[in-house]
Amino acid sequence: MKPFLKWAGGKYRVLKHIEKALPKGKRLIEPFLGSGAVFLNTSFESYLLSDSNSDLINLFNQLKNDGPHFIKLTKKYFNDKFNTEESFYEQRALFNKTSDIELRSALFIYLNRHCFNGLCRYNKKGEFNVPYGRYKTPYFPEIEMREFCLKSKNAIFVSKDFRETMNEAVKGDVIYCDPPYVPLSLTSNFTDYASGGFDLEDQKDLVDLAVSLKKKKIPVLISNSDTKWTKDHYKSASINYFEVQRFISADSSKRNKAGEILALFK
Hints:
Helices cover about 35% and strands about 15% of the residues. The chain is built from nine helices and seven strands, in the order αβαβααααβαβαβαββ. The protein has helices at about 15-20, 35-40, 55-75, 85-95, 100-115, 140-150, 160-165, 200-215, 230-235, and strands spanning about 25-30, 45-50, 155-160, 175, 220-225, 240-245, 255-265. Strand 4, helix 8 (about 200-215) and strand 5 (about 220-225) form a beta-alpha-beta unit. The two termini are about 30 Å apart. About 35% of the residues are buried.
């Protein structure tokens, strides 16, 4: 099942690796939900799904609670009238100004499909600031949104810090973490999709939590980049290495393969 959002670092293309490494359990907890690719393609009895990006969680709750109406509302933004540079910046300004959750959620999908590379980025004021993408005919993911609605019935969506979400785990739960990755270099740090970023102290806290939960017999699987830092800090985990194709760079010649790891604390 494909996510309806474009998402930097989304896990749809590497699901085969995750599915192989993910332990069995009754409930899946995801503290870094993103586009929800793992949630959409697993079969747990229930889900606790969290992300620090409140726009993302509000959108998912709109779909869960009022799917058909919300899909109809969002579809009106996918036509030639709204696919111009002028209209894009008007809708982006409206998104940054409005406090109407339903409207903001609909515009979130519009921006996701019309902005450059489907990036989600905010400035220090908390304003969405990705530029216009100049796509000829942006795709409206109606089928994928309807599938998401059906799948979401046994899921709870919350916007919380990952520490708070992970501390809600009990025996029988399985946790999958897809945090902003440890950067391969200082110039490749894409961690601003939620205002506040995610630094190495946060990465250390995540490892400490995983080790603590492992001692309680609650397995934690973490995706991250293959770097010296992750190798040094994930020593108590079982690690699976693989390569993935990068799709973020504007220059297609620079979209090289990069090493990733799956670290299982169990």
